[in-house]
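Hi C.,

You asked whether I'd gotten around to modeling the 140-residue construct. I have! Everything is below, sequence then structure, no commentary in between.
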Amino acid sequence: MDDVQTDALSEMDAARAAARQSAEAVLGTVRALLAELYPEAAYVRVNSGGGIARIGSVHTPKGHRHEGPIRRGRTVFPPHLIGEWPLSRLPKRVTRPHLGPHADDDKRTLNAVLTDAWRAGARVPEGYVGRHFCDRLKLR
């Protein structure tokens, strides 16, 4: 009886470790995707807690807020909204290499992907953005 329980615990630990590795890979994919959307940015703040993770603000290497590329006087990818956009709304030249067939998903968002990775065990590293210590993804 004890061997069966031990085997079940071992299988559960192995599954948890595998989920954490894939979650770290997903976090790397989100990092690469955001690096292409914001070519001049160095950091993206991630707010995590309460069971969710979401994109906060985008910052330059000096720690200043970055509003993203501007076209015709408007921000193309507003950082405060980009996390809630469906993946299908993002440019395909950016999403297809990283997400493959999931780039056309109308229901999944970047915040949902971050939340899934966070719940699976991926942790966003902490560090300084300017003078503030926070959870952040380093893009460059």
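If it helps when you're writing up: The chain has a mean pLDDT of 86.

Thanks,
B.
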